[in-house]
Amino acid sequence: MKKLLFAAIVATLPFLTMAQISVTGTVTDNNQKSLPGATIKLKSQKTAVVSDANGNYTLSNLSAGKYVFSVSYVGYQTAEKAINLTESTTLNFSLNSQSFIADEVVVSATRASKNSATTFKNLNKDDLAKNNLGQDLPYLLNQTPSVVVSSDAGAGIGYTGIRIRGSDATRINVTINGIPLNDAESQGSYFINLPDLASSVDNIQIQRGVGTSTNGAGAFGASLNIQTTTRRDSAYAELNNTYGSYNTWKNSINVGTGLINNKFSFDGRLSRIKSDGYVDRASSNLKSFFVSGAYYGKKDLLRVNVFSGTEKTYQAWNGVDAETLKTDRRHNDFTYDNQTDNYQQDHYQLFYTRTLSDKLVANAALHYTYGRGYYEEFKDGETLADYGIAPLVIGGVTQTESDLVRRLWLDNDFYGATYSLNYTPKSNLNFTLGGAYNEYKGKHFDEVIWAQFANYEGSNSIRYRYNDNDAFKTDFNTFLRANYQIDKLSLFGDFQYRHVYYSYFGIDPSGKPGQQNATLDFFNPKAGLTYSFNEKSNVYASIAIGNKEPNRRDFTDSNINSRPKPERLTDFEAGYRTQFSNLSFGLNGFAMIYKDQLINTGKLNDVGGQTRQNVADSYRAGVEFDGRWQISKNLYWAATATFSRNKIKNFEEYLYDEVDGSLLVNNYSNTDISFSPSIIASSEINYTLLKNADIAFLSKYVGRQYLTNTSAKSESLSSFFVNDIRLRYNTSFAHVKNIGVSLLINNVFSTLYENNGASYPSLYGGELTRYNYYYPQATRNFLLSLSLKF
């Protein structure tokens, strides 16, 4: 039945006929100068084209009916025209220049464009809104190329993960308005700390590979450049409410003043998300707010953002062991009532842009992030000496072990400044000089808050702090980027220097604990070229070098002699992009050559994180496809596909016998990198049933993923093919501008699958055993949303 339904949907494609009406025109400024590269789109539809070198455009294959055309161009006011099409016609646009600096001017300075020698994917607010019914941000990116997402709780709410080309979150550089989001020590990005962030996002650019320096200093495996709320000219209010499976609720309100006196605007959002989770007790209680104010001057733009998120999540990071998975997919090892993770993160951002001349624009930003929280857990039969607690004598019996409850705390401050100068001496030449300086102060401390047997005397009283250490990290970078256009050939060069200093509590060469430090200097050059056949098609090629320091656990679990080396990546990208009136696609080839890559061993540490080790030589190489076909006015098909090889040339696995401490070394050659599937594909077939109603069939295929680097099928995640259905209807009534109803049915065929896992090797008395754990995902479930816009 599954195959028949899928075949039936695909079979509907041929009999839909192509319309024949076309609209042509020219886009100019108010001095009749042509504007090449202007975007012409039909409102409430995905159809869009770009004007050519003479400002001309054509939109073909349109049916008779009413349309609203919207034309936008950086530095100019967006123009709209409504038209009732009955036959082919000409529609020209004359755009007025902005009387103030627009947010788009700031954004475009940090983004790859259609002629950049970089592979990227842009998502706008409408793209995100289609699936923004409560799941975390990674799940809204699931249909983009080379992406694999995961969820501890199984339903996309709570702790979620994302990998791009097999690179995990520690190698995906995330910035919000150009400010780093990645944790300075663990290097991961935790979107759970900013629930419902997507409701305050205007657009996202995903760059795969090393990417550009303007997209973040730590760019390595991929980058997410997130731009939050930008100017909206009219006042608005929005109410969004979702209810779904597993007692899932999302409630949010968005309000904005629009542009006041052509100078000021204010926006705000308040959200909460609650869910019991698919896995037993894997509940989430999430809250957040976002406030932004801006001043728009003729030569100045000033914006202040304040946003915060709090989360309380019941832990589900152990996964389910292989035997239990057969009988109880929703099993959770944890049963203690308050086995929870609790965290709050506050963000403060200040941005200033100044147009110094028609050739020079300066941008500067200050930021501060304050994070604090803990996770609490019950531990049974712990040795008191490990916590610095003296044995307790009760009735003549000495108690050296005890059940206890502990809290592991993190209290950190992250602050700094970023800047850039954009200089355009000629129309075909521009320079960007930029950089940033950031400091991080992290306090790590742990305490016992209850124990079955505890010594209450002196420092060993209850709530005894048994571990207390601090970390300090500075990160400085500066870069110079140049672009030069020679007829149809565009060249760029990008040179970045980065300096990192890290002080942490670790292990000295003699094995004793103590404060340690590391200083690292990196040079990351990049270069590329693009040849444009015309305004709609080009080919490109680039080479980029990225270096990345180890994360906190890599440092703290080693001494200066055994410390892992930094990773080095040489990234080659080459591709072809084209756009027609009803078809657009990109084909990209990549080769990511690593030196000393830090790879996951498959074993988890005591807080659910992957442990890592260097491998001398490894690589990822493959080809990516990203395309969209507007089959007819009512039907489009978007698809992505990635085919890759992800190999380690030589891998040595080290196992220590728990009985006598002897060492076993297993050698592997040309083995697969863990969590790096060779095939990733997605499909979205969207059909407009009525004028304001559409149905979409979403599919995702992910090939086999190995839990370890041994290419052992017994230690892997099976490939999976999952399908969702999305229905949407929009209308208006009285003073309500839009009433939107959305239904998202996830995993419509109730496929049983796991998208994440772990493997623990154990050598005991010469006998090797591998214990596998998996993170099962929800079977058929739904999210039903009602949104009101005023």
Attribute tags:
790 residues; mainly beta; Immunoglobulin-like; Maltoporin, Chain A; 5-stranded mixed beta sheet; 45 strands; 61% strand; globular; siderophore uptake transmembrane transporter activity; tonb box; CarboxyPept-like_regulatory
Largest sheet data: 22 strands, antiparallel, barrel
Can you tell me the residue ranges where pLDDT is under 50 for at least 5 consecutive residues? 3-19
Mean pLDDT: 90
Tell me the count of domains: 2
Radius of gyration: 27 Å
Number of helices: 6
By helix and strand content, what is the structural category?
A: mainly beta
CATH-assigned homologous superfamily of the largest domain: TonB-dependent receptor, beta-barrel domain
- For the termini, the CA-CA separation is 43 Å
Write a brief structural summary.
By secondary structure, the chain is mainly β.
Explain this structure to me?
There is one protein chain. The protein has 790 residues and is mainly β. The chain is built from 6 helices and 45 strands. Strand 34 and strand 35 form a beta hairpin. It is globular.
